[in-house]
Every structure is written in structure tokens, then in C-alpha cells.
Amino acid sequence: MSEKRTEISEIGEFGLIDRLHQKIKIQHESSLKGIGDDAAVIDAGDHVKVVTTDLLLEGVHFDLSYAPLPHVGFKAVAVNVSDVAAMNAIAKQITVSIAITNRFSVEAVEALYAGINAACEHFGVDLVGGDTTSSRSGLVISVTAIGEAQKEQLSYRSGAKENDIICVTGDLGGAFVGLQVLEREKQVFLANPNMQPELEKYQIVTARQLRPDARMDIVHELREIGVVPTSMMDISDGLASELFHICKASGVGVTIYEDKLPIDKQTFDTAVELNMDPITCVLNGGEDYELIFTISQEDYKKLEKHPDIHFIGYVNKEADGKHLVTKSGTAVALKAQGWKHF
Amino acid sequence: MSEKRTEISEIGEFGLIDRLHQKIKIQHESSLKGIGDDAAVIDAGDHVKVVTTDLLLEGVHFDLSYAPLPHVGFKAVAVNVSDVAAMNAIAKQITVSIAITNRFSVEAVEALYAGINAACEHFGVDLVGGDTTSSRSGLVISVTAIGEAQKEQLSYRSGAKENDIICVTGDLGGAFVGLQVLEREKQVFLANPNMQPELEKYQIVTARQLRPDARMDIVHELREIGVVPTSMMDISDGLASELFHICKASGVGVTIYEDKLPIDKQTFDTAVELNMDPITCVLNGGEDYELIFTISQEDYKKLEKHPDIHFIGYVNKEADGKHLVTKSGTAVALKAQGWKHF
Which residues bind Mg(2+) 1 (chains A, B) (predicted)? Predict the structure, then answer.
């Protein structure tokens, strides 16, 4: 270790990543896109491959006291498929590596893989490789997903242009609210193990947290309709945080409208019950794994009647900033809190 | 968890992998080869991509009390490049995910990446993606490597044929002997922290353990010479264990000769000093990351003068079994102990 010691918390996760990536050199022409988007892009002759990877640790990314193992397996695949979708590519293959302690039985590992296999079937991906090893403390899962696209079909973070329309799929904030419910019930259970968790009325939000879908369906639909988003990301860290990434990569600003933000009734009601502002949950709650993308004005007609795509605002000049227009018509500066793992 | 509880130790790592893989279905034509070789093979139009991944945990795969962080980073890349080499493919891209505790400073993470970047330069691969997250207990590194080959250039485990010649690169047993030296010096240090470790005379073997090379050079040379091995693996679990995998996948037996097994003088001397049988270290010591491959008799002339390729035996019928012919001329049954992570 060197003499100087800088804590990671001083520069943050994104600061650390920036610092590490300054020293990386790309030498192969086939490495079309390196670090800096939802997935890397590799030339494959008549098409391109996209590659993305996520590392998930027990106690950091999932809590086995309330997350059933099949759900953990499903989610580990879904979050990677979601990153492939975020490039407007079709996920085809995954590798799955796991590290387990001797607390896990063969049956427990099979339960985990039941979820992994269910996700493979649901998303149409093949499990083609991986690694199995032992851990001294808890379950570790590493998934790499590989997808395909034509080069001109890819959507990067960097392509948003002034006057583009900002779209989001599904509804937002549910996964975050679901996490709060699960954490609350866990505390109740720890305080009194005879108490049964009350989860029936929170099924939608807890499912959003425990077993999220990835919007591969939207990628297929966009191809059928003939729309290539000018930019796209998946919403893993929170809507505001992802908008900041698109603005930075594209050199643009954005204006979004509070009354256009999609929120499910159960998410709204549960947020209120938990004394949280529903709009804050929508803007900054992570792990919804919906897609945020921008389209050119001329593509609007093709999507306007889609039941699961919502038009939440538009792209403006970088100098005009990033704003949220509240229901009362006031424009306030958008803030990205995102999820901090450090 | 289900009612029945089977311990993983009852069925072993390979038993667990077999059991999990029975339930996996492959649906895409582009998934040319799934689990069961050193890497998966994915169609890429005019060529194929190979994909391999390894998950490395502090305290299981490396010990930071004697492994410097740059070496850990280098090795994490090397072991994956080695799996690409084992397919007779050229590594082109890698992704690296890390999980770290707050015990790691920014400078420590930079030291790790200095080794990763050095390996990228050494092996000619581009670091194109990854994930950075926090860990509650120790460093976790997950690397995925992607390589390229023409379909007809690939060497699988399953292609060995009767009368083929068995080749190994470099020398064997060094990494295992190096590990024993490092563990011994660690115990000495723990017993008396004022003792300085004596590592000068063990530089070759400790380097084999801490900073192994991957034989991407051999893959390039085989292409230049125009030899495609009939089967190939890298030696990560030990020579005997890898031979068993080739025999099983190819439906063959093997005969190897003790006096043909390559061992470095320092490996030999250190094994003797540590009261270990040098040949057992060569046969069952893991982590050398040399290549073992089989060639047809007609290709022998092209390789016979290669200074770093050794011809250790030949492939025979499955019914004739797997044998080691000792220096005294006695044929003994070959046993695979391999490395057990569980």
C-alpha cells in the first residue's frame, strides 16, 4: 500500500471509476465501445456483441432473510439482461459464477439455479458458462450477459439531441418502496420472531424489489415498430441519476414534468404510509429496471399509443439545465441522489 | 430451503456442477458450445467468440498477507486469458468487476488496477467493462474474458484421438510448491513478526504462484506453424486432473512417462526441501496455467524442436486406461487429485 491513503468515500463510486478508467488504453479495433455505457460493444463482423457484467453480494445487494433464493437467481439474470436492453440489443447468452459457503446445501444451490433457469427461459437467454467456488462469508453471484444488435440499432447514452422526447417504460419507485417494506417487516420480525410479516397488501412493490423484470419486451417492440432511441439507459440507480448520465454523455439538458411521471397506485399509497414523498421515490428510488430513452420528434407518432411507454419531458440545450416542472407549474432544479454502495 | 439437505462436500464441486447443468437448456443456434469446456463458444458470423469467466475471493483464491495487490490483479486477468488460450483462441477483451471493503483505500484499488492494466498490455486485451461495488468481507474479483478464433481453429477437450501425442508447455508444479513456501513463511511471520521472510531463493516458484503467465504466446505460435491441437486445456487444477477431463470428454485413455514430465530445478529442489515428492507436485499441483494439448502424429515434426513444448506421452484406447510409466518402466494407474475448493 502506498503512503497516501484516500478513502473511497472521499471521491465516491463514480469518482473512483473515473480515476481508474483514465489509465485504460483500448488497442483493438473490435472494441467499439469500452467503459462508460450500460454495456461494452464488440465488433462481430456482420453485427455487434454487447457485453455487460454485474457482481452481487449477500448483505450488500440482497438479504437472504427475506429474499427467496429463486428470486435472487432470477434478479441476478434480470439486472444484466436489463443492461443489454439498455443498449437496444437482444440478450442471447449469460455466464453465471457463484461463490458459496458451506451453509448452503445442494438443495439451496438448486433453488438459486431454479430462479436463474426461469430467468433464462423468460428472457430467452442461454446459460453457457460460469464458475463455482467457495466463499468464506455469504453468497456471491457474478453474471455476464452477451447480446446482439446491428451496429445502427444500438442506443448509447450519448445520442440525445435537443427537442428529443424523453420516454420511460412501466412505472417507477416501486422497487425502492418495496425495499422499505421488506426492511420494516424484517425489523418487526427481529424484534418479535412470533410476528408474521404482513406482506399481502404490498405484493406489487415487494415483487418489484425481489424479482424485477427486465424490459427486453420493449426492445423487441421498438424493432418491430422501427424506432431506434437516440439514447437509452436502464433505471437501476434512479430516474434522476440516469437522466444526469444521459445529459453528461450527450451534452444536453432536460425538462421533465411531475404530472407525467408514472407511479403505480400501490407504490404511491405505500410511500405515503411510510411517510415518504412518492415523487422522491420515483425520481431517486433505484432498481426498477425500467428503460429511459429519448426519441426524435418524428418517432413520437409511432409510440404515442403504446400503453406502457410514458412521455415525461424533452431534451433541451445543456445551458438550459436540468429541470423538474412541478404540478403547480414551477420549474425546480433536478437533483440526482442515486444509490450509493459506498 | 427444502427439507432434504445434501452437503456439497457429499457430491463435490464437479458433482454439483453436473447436477446443476442437467437442467440447462440451450435455445439459440449461436450458442455453439455451452458449459463443459474451458470457455463457451458463441457464433459471430465469420468467426466465433469464446467467453470464459472466473470468480476470485480473498481468503479462498488469494491471501493478501503475501500476495501484493498488483500481482492479484495481474493473476485475475491471466487465469481468464489462459482459459481463452485453452480453446486455441486469441483473447481480445475483458471485463473486471470488483467488490471491496472500506479497508481498501483509493490507492490500494489503483495498485490492483495497475496489475490489471499490466496484464491487459502483456496479453494484448482491452478492458471494456465491469462493475465496482462494496463488500462486507474482503476483496472479490470477477473477470470475464472474450476471445476470437475461426471455428476450425478451436480446440475442445473432446477431440483427442488414439495415437495422438500429448504435449505440455513450460514446466509444472512450480505454482503449487511456491504456495507451500509462501504459506510456510506466513506461519513463521505469524509466530514471530520480527522474522523477515526468506524468499530470495524461491523467486521462481513464488512468482509462478503469485503472478502466473498465460500461454497466449503458444496460441500465436501454433497458428504461425499451422498446427491445430486435437484437444487442449489449461493446467489450473493439475496435470492429472486435466488429463482425466480430456479422457472423459474424448472417450480415450492416456499413457504418460515420468521421465518426460517437465520440472524446473528450483521446483524440484524446493519440493525435496519441503519433503514433498516432486512428481506428485507436477501431477497434482494446480495453478501452473501451462497448456496441455494433443496433436496428431503428422504434426509432431512441426513442433519437435520447440524449446518450450514437451511431449509427455500418447493417447490410447479408453479401454486401455490411464497410466503413468515410472522411470523404472512400471506402468501405474494415474490418479487425479486435483484442487478441491469445497
Answer: 53-54, 131
> Cα–Cα distance between A312 and B116 in angstroms, integer?
42
CA distance B47 to chain A (A): 8
Q: Is the pLDDT of residue A131 over 80?
A: yes
Task: Write down the pLDDT at residue B255.
Answer: 98
Contact B126 A34 (CB under 8 A): yes
CA A296 to chain centre: 23
CATH 3.90.650.10 holds for B157-333:
yes
Q: In what order do the strands lie in the sheet with B331-333?
A: B231-234, B291-295, B165-169, B309-317, B252-257, B322-325, B331-333
Strand B252-257, strand A291-295: pairing: unpaired
Instruction: Place B338 in a pLDDT band, splitting at 50, 70 and 90.
Output: low
Look up residue B105 and give its DSSP letter.
B
Q: What is the ipTM of this complex?
A: 0.93
The length of chain A in residues reads: 342
Q: What is the pLDDT of residues B56-71, one digit of tens each?
A: 999 999 999 999 999 9
Q: Does residue B322 sit at the A interface (CB-CB below 8 Å)?
A: no
Cell output for B237: 487444477
- Does the annotation place A320 within a ligand binding site? no
- Residues of chain B in contact with residue A54, where contact means CB-CB under 8 angstroms, are 97, 131
Q: What percent of chain A has pLDDT over 70?
A: 98
Tell me whether residues A117 and B23 touch, CB distance under 8 A: yes
Domain boundary assignment for chain B: 30-153, 157-333
Residues A286 and B133: their CA atoms lie apart, in Å, by: 15
Put simply, the answer to whether A144 touches B51 (Cβ < 8 Å) is yes
pLDDT in tens, A183-210: 999 998 888 888 877 788 999 999 999 9
Q: Are A166 and A310 in contact (CB under 8 A)?
A: no
User: Among residues A145, A169, A325, which one has the least CA distance to residue A232?
Assistant: A169
Does domain B30-153 fall under CATH 3.30.1330.10? My reply is: yes
What residues contact A13, with CB distance under 8 A and at least 6 apart?
A: A340, A341, A342, B132, B133
Cell numbers linked to A267: 407504490
CB A234 within 8 A of CB A86: yes
